[in-house]
Specification:
2 copies of one chain form a homodimer. Chain A contains 4 helices and 8 strands; from the N terminus they run βααβββαββββα. By secondary structure, chain A is α+β, with helices and mostly antiparallel strands. β5 of chain A pairs antiparallel with β5 of chain B.
Chain lengths: 227, 227
Amino acid sequence: MSRFEIEHATDEEIAQEAALYAPFTEAVRALVDATIRTEVDADEIRSAQAEVEAIVERLRKQQMEGAYGVRFRADGKRGRNWGNAVMGLRNPIAPPLDVRSDGQGKAWSDFHLGAAYEGPPGLVHGGVVSLMLDQVLGHAVSTSGRPGMTGTLTIVYRQGTPLGDLRCEAWVDRREGIKTWGKGRILTTDGEVTAEAEGVFILPKWARDLDRFRAAAEATESAFELE
Amino acid sequence: MSRFEIEHATDEEIAQEAALYAPFTEAVRALVDATIRTEVDADEIRSAQAEVEAIVERLRKQQMEGAYGVRFRADGKRGRNWGNAVMGLRNPIAPPLDVRSDGQGKAWSDFHLGAAYEGPPGLVHGGVVSLMLDQVLGHAVSTSGRPGMTGTLTIVYRQGTPLGDLRCEAWVDRREGIKTWGKGRILTTDGEVTAEAEGVFILPKWARDLDRFRAAAEATESAFELE
């Protein structure tokens, strides 16, 4: 199911696709919420089920093999991760997070978590807290110029995180060889920190090879310059 | 949105509700998957969107305020957490996990993660890995006889976790005062460990008060016995 793909669509085509899929996915997100919270009678549930099943059957008539994957861009711009569990424009499970970054190792996101993300009554599931932190820390690290796969992630829960509007912030703390340390936290709209995180992100092998390749290329260039 | 409620339904009523809501929620889970993977044309997407919006409108005609919460049982049996982000029978975001335990501090679950849980191409999102571990560790701790809120959770990622069939195992490692240490791991069907976890779970204040109340009651009883 591994789908590393090169992006073939133009910016305009991507914008058109986003305009089509974003509102559709948003409708399915609303359905997820309503599925948990509805109190209509049994007959209404059964008819809704039959209709949903019919929609699924039509959507599946033509569908990709396996998961969405990530479409990487040849021009080095950020790849399309529309299936991503946290940020995916086409994934109804994703809140979705719109993660911003300053490109210098800071990243942040303001988002809303409703009924679908509940753990203890009225509170965000502790694992969902770690899911959001993992994404934003990873974003801070990867947009700082060095991609990283999560090696270790530690979450310290200070207090329950209430469902509703929240903010997640993350930043690069330090670097050492192939490791980058990221830190982050989740805050309520009152500015109360509910959870903190520290993660170690490891530079993937392909990026290390790329580093070596670049170093070799630079060394070769300098050699030619010297001649 | 905090909903600590006492369960009023009988076992038979709960079974009837489960028979109604489980297949409906399953249909919405399939729709979540199809929303990510469909490749039907734009008109079909737009008509599916309109139909989903109409279903949502009908379901919302009568719905609970806020999130589902947890319905606790007066008889001490496990409460109904049908809205839970990982285990919830009525939550389309939940795979859902059916977590088993031996009541002695071991818990485990076999489950399937499809396209909706993707992070890197073909792999489970690192934060989803921590979400599953948080739930199963918490389950091991709480079914061992001492409820616990997650205090700290550390995940060590050994390798990418492939989308598909997976197993999560957790166990109570040790106890000290109000703290319980839980450990756990995620495995592929080949038995390869992809991630490991350690968590510290804190006995909530209400349970400590209950402990003190019990101790006081026992002391009072012994005092009466002595008289």
